[in-house]
C-alpha cells in the first residue's frame, strides 16, 4: 500500500466522528442518485410494458419526459453533494494543517499532500458508495411502491367511471446500469469535492502550516462596528462579527449549507401551494353526478383545402340525447337533469371587428394560423333549452350566443364579453372553406347560465347554443340521493343506446361512456400532480437531511479547530460567558446570512418554475409564508443547538494544554 494511502486510512480511523459524517454525506449522495435512477428505470419499464418495445411512435417525447426530471434532480443532487462534501473535506483539511506542515518538514511533496487528501476521499467512497447504493435501492423501492399504488388507484378510478380502461403498472425495476452509473457519478462527486481542499493544502508552505496559517482563511480586513450588533450582543458580538468577516472561507461553507437548507424548505412549500391551487382550480367546476358520452374523432386533411379536419365517428343526435334525458329524470321524482352537448369539430368563426371587441381579437392564440376562431356549437335537452330561451327572451328554435369568455392570462383567470350587445349574425366556416351565416336571436351572459355543463375548464372563444344537431359528445348533470343506485340505473340506460361491448370501447367501438361524480374524474386528472408532489417532496427531504449533515459537520469543525484561539482569549482575561456569547453571536450571524441568501433563492427558483406552470394552470406564485417561517425557525434552532453542544465540550478545558497542543 502506498504511504499516502496508508496515512489517509489512519486519519479515517483516528477521526471517527468526522469519518462518520463524511460517510453519511457521501452515502446520502449515492442513495439519492440511485433512487432517481430507480424511478427512471421503473418508469421506462412501465411505459415499455404499456406501449411496447421502443415506446412506439412517440418514443422521443416519452424519453424526454423521463430524462428532463432525472437530469434536473441529478444536477441538483450533484450540486448539493459537492457543496456539503467539499465543506467537510475543507474543514478536515483545516484541522490537519499542522500535520501537513510536519510531513512537509520531513520531506513530503505537494503531490503527496494532495494524494493524502484524495486517498482519504477514496477510502471513504469504498465504504460509503456501496452503502449509498443499497440505501438508494431501498428508497427507490419504497418510493416506486407508493407511486405504484397511486397508479393502481388511477386504474381503478378509470374503471369505476366507465371510461377508457387504463392498465398502467408501475413495478420496481433496477438493473446493472443503475448501479454502475450511480457509483461512477458518486465517485466523480467525491473526487471533485476533495480536489479543491487537496490543491490548497499542497500549496501552503511548511512553516505557515506549523504556524497555523489555515489555508489563508484569516484575512487582514478592516471591520466596521455595527451598532445593531453592538446593541444586541455587546462587544462580544462585535468580536464575533469581526471573526466571521475575517474568516469568510471558514464560514462560507456553513452559510452555503444553511442557505441551501432554507431554500429547499421554501421550494417544497411553494411547490405544494402551486399543486394545491392547480387542483383547487380543477375542482371548481362542481361535484355533480355526470353521465357522459363522447365519440372518437378521426383527424384527416380536407381534400379541397388541406386544412386539418376532425371527423366525428359516432355522433349523438339531439333527439337521442333528449330521450336519454327523460329516461334519467324518471329515475327519481323531481330529479333535475341538465343535458348539454357540444360540437367543436364542424365550424370556426370568421373574425369580425364590427361585432367582436378589439380586446378579444388581440388575445394570443385566439385567431389561428388560418385566420379563424375556434367555435363550439352547444345543444341542450328540451327542458334545459326551453329554460335558456326564456332567460334570453327568445322563442323556441332560436340561436343563442354565449357572450362570455374565460381564459388563463399568465396565471390569472380573466373574463370578457367578446361580442357587442347588438350582434345579430356570425359568419361560420368549415374545413372545406364553405361559409355559413348563422343568425343570432338572443344573447346570454355568464350570470344567466347554469353552472352544470357550461363552466368547463377550457371553454371555446365562441360558443353558440343551437336548437338541434349532431354532437360529438353529450353530458347529463344531476344530483341523485343514492349514487350507487343511480350509477347502476344510468348504466342500464346507456347500455340500451351505447353499450360497452369491448374493453377498449373508445378505440374499437368509436365511443366511450363514463358515469361518475365530477370529483372522481378530477381525481384521475390530479393523480399525476399528486404523484409528482410526493416524489419531489421525498427527494427534497433527503436533500435537506444532507444539507443539515453539512451544517452540523462544518459548524462543529469551525468551533473545534479554534480551541487555541479560545484558549488565548481566556488567557488575556475573557470569561467563559463572554466567550460563549461571542460564539453564539457568530452562529446567529451565520444563520442570518444563510437565511438571507436562502430566502432569495427560495423565491427565485419556485418563481422560475411557476413561469412554466402558469402557462397551463391559472396559478400565480405566492410567497410560502409558513414554509419561510418554518425554515427560519428550523435553521436557527439547528445552529443554536450545534453551537450549544460544541460550547459544552469547551467547558473545563485546560488553557495551557490547548495552547501547547497546537504549538507542539
Task: Give an overview in words.
- With 664 residues, the chain is an alpha+beta fold.
- Strands 1, 5, 6, 7, 8, 11, 12, 13, 14, 16 and 17 form an eleven-stranded mixed sheet that branches.
- Strand 11 and strand 12 form a beta hairpin.
- Helix 11 runs antiparallel to helix 14.
- The longest helix has 51 residues.
- The chain is elongated, with a radius of gyration of 34 Å.
Question: What is the topology?
Answer:
Blueprint: H1 3-14, H2 16-51, H3 59-95, H4 97-105, H5 110-160, H6 176-203, H7 206-211, H8 227-233, H9 235-246, H10 248-282, E1 289-295, E2 297-301, E3 308-312, E4 316-317, H11 318-329, E5 338-343, E6 348-349, H12 358-361, E7 373-380, H13 382-392, E8 400-402, E9 405-409, E10 412-416, E11 425-429, E12 435-439, E13 442-444, E14 462-465, E15 470-471, E16 473-478, H14 483-497, H15 505-508, E17 511-517, H16 518-560, H17 563-571, H18 576-616, H19 625-650, H20 655-663
Parallel strand pairs: 7-14, 8-13
Antiparallel strand pairs: 1-16, 1-17, 2-3, 4-15, 5-7, 5-16, 6-7, 6-11, 8-14, 9-10, 11-12
Helix pairs in contact: 1-5, 2-3, 2-5, 2-6, 2-16, 3-6, 3-10, 3-16, 5-6, 5-16, 8-9, 9-18, 10-16, 10-18, 10-19, 11-14, 16-19, 17-20, 18-19
Summary keywords:
61% helix, elongated, alpha+beta, two-stranded antiparallel sheet, 3 domains, 664 residues
| Main structural class | alpha+beta
Mean pLDDT: 79
Task: Provide the low-confidence segments as ranges.
Answer: 214-219
Fraction of residues in H or I helices:
55-70%
General shape: elongated
Strand content: 5-15%
How many individual domains? 3
Q: Enumerate how many helices there are, as a single number.
A: 20
Number of strands: 17
Gap from first CA to last CA: 29 Å
**How would you describe the oligomerization state of the chains in this entry?**
single chain
Radius of gyration, in Å, reads 34 Å
The biggest sheet amounts to:
11 strands, mixed
Amino acid at each position: 500500500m502506498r504511504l499516502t494511502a496508508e496515512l489517509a486510512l489512519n486519519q479515517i480511523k483516528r477521526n471517527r466522528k468526522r469519518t462518520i459524517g463524511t460517510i453519511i454525506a457521501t452515502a446520502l449522495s449515492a442513495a439519492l442518485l440511485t433512487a432517481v435512477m430507480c424511478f427512471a428505470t421503473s418508469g421506462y419499464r412501465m411505459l415499455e410494458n404499456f406501449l411496447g418495445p421502443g415506446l412506439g411512435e412517440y418514443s422521443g417525447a416519452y424519453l424526454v419526459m423521463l430524462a428532463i426530471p432525472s437530469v434536473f434532480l441529478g444536477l441538483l443532487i450533484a450540486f448539493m453533494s459537492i457543496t456539503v462534501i467539499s465543506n467537510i473535506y475543507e474543514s478536515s483539511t483545516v484541522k490537519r494543517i499542522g500535520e501537513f506542515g510536519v510531513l512537509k518538514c520531513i520531506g513530503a511533496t505537494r503531490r503527496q499532500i494532495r494524494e493524502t487528501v484524495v486517498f482519504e476521499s477514496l477510502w471513504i467512497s469504498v465504504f460509503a458508495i456501496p452503502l449509498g447504493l443499497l440505501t438508494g435501492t431501498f428508497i427507490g423501492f419504497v418510493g416506486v411502491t407508493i407511486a405504484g399504488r397511486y397508479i393502481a388507484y388511477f386504474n381503478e378510478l378509470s374503471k369505476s367511471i366507465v371510461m377508457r380502461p387504463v392498465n398502467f403498472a408501475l413495478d420496481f425495476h433496477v438493473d446493472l446500469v443503475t448501479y454502475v452509473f450511480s457509483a461512477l457519478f458518486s465517485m466523480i462527486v467525491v473526487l471533485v469535492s476533495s480536489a479543491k481542499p487537496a490543491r490548497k493544502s499542497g500549496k501552503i508552505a511548511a512553516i505557515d502550516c506549523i504556524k497555523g496559517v489555515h489555508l489563508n482563511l484569516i484575512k487582514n480586513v478592516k471591520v466596521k462596528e455595527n451598532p445593531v450588533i453592538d446593541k444586541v450582543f455587546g462587544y462580544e458580538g462585535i468580536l464575533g462579527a469581526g471573526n466571521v468577516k475575517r474568516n469568510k472561507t471558514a464560514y462560507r461553507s456553513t452559510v452555503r449549507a444553511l442557505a441551501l437548507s432554507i431554500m429547499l424548505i421554501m421550494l417544497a412549500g411553494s411547490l405544494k401551494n402551486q399543486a394545491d391551487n392547480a387542483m383547487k382550480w380543477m375542482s371548481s367546476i362542481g361535484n355533480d353526478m355526470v353521465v357522459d358520452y363522447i365519440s372518437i374523432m378521426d383527424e384527416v386533411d380536407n381534400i379541397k383545402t388541406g386544412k386539418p379536419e376532425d371527423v366525428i365517428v359516432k355522433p349523438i343526435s339531439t333527439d337521442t340525447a333528449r330521450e336519454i334525458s327523460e329516461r334519467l329524470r324518471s329515475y327519481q321524482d323531481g330529479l333535475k337533469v341538465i343535458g348539454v352537448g357540444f360540437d367543436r369539430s364542424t365550424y370556426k368563426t370568421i373574425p369580425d371587428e364590427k361585432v367582436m371587441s378589439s380586446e378579444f381579437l388581440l388575445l394570443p392564440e385566439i385567431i389561428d394560423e388560418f385566420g379563424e376562431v375556434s367555435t363550439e356549437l352547444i345543444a341542450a335537452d328540451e327542458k334545459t333549452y326551453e329554460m335558456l330561451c326564456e332567460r334570453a327572451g327568445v322563442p323556441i328554435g332560436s340561436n343563442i350566443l354565449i357572450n362570455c369568455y374565460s381564459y388563463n392570462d399568465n396565471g390569472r383567470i380573466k373574463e370578457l364579453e367578446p361580442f357587442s350587445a347588438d350582434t345579430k349574425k356570425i359568419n361560420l366556416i368549415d374545413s372545406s372553406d364553405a361559409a355559413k351565416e348563422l343568425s343570432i336571436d338572443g344573447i346570454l351572459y355568464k350570470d344567466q347560465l347554469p353552472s352544470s355543463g357550461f363552466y368547463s375548464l377550457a371553454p371555446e372563444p365562441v360558443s353558440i347554443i343551437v336548437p338541434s344537431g349532431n354532437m360529438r359528445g353529450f353530458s347529463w348533470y344531476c344530483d341523485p340521493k343514492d349514487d350507487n343506485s343511480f350509477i347502476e340505473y344510468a348504466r342500464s340506460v346507456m347500455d340500451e343506446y351505447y353499450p360497452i361491448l369491448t374493453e377498449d370501447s373508445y378505440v374499437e367501438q368509436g365511443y366511450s361512456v363514463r358515469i361518475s361524480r365530477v370529483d372522481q374524474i378530477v381525481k384521475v386528472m390530479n393523480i399525476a400532480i399528486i404523484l409528482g408532489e410526493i416524489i419531489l417532496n421525498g427527494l427534497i427531504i433527503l436533500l435537506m437531511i444532507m444539507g443539515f449533515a453539512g451544517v452540523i459537520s462544518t459548524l462543529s469543525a469551525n468551533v473545534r479547530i479554534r480551541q487555541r484561539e479560545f484558549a488565548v482569549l481566556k488567557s488575556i482575561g475573557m470569561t467563559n460567558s463572554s466567550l460563549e456569547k461571542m460564539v453564539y453571536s457568530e452562529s446567529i450571524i451565520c444563520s442570518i446570512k444563510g437565511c438571507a441568501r436562502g430566502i432569495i433563492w427560495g423565491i427565485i427558483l419556485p418563481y422560475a418554475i411557476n413561469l412554466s406552470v402558469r402557462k397551463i394552470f391559472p396559478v400565480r406564485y405566492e410567497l410560502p409564508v409558513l414554509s419561510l417561517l418554518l425554515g427560519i425557525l428550523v435553521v436557527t434552532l439547528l445552529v443554536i443547538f450545534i453551537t450549544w453542544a460544541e460550547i459544552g465540550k469547551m467547558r473545563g478545558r485546560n488553557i495551557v494544554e490547548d495552547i501547547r497542543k497546537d504549538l507542539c
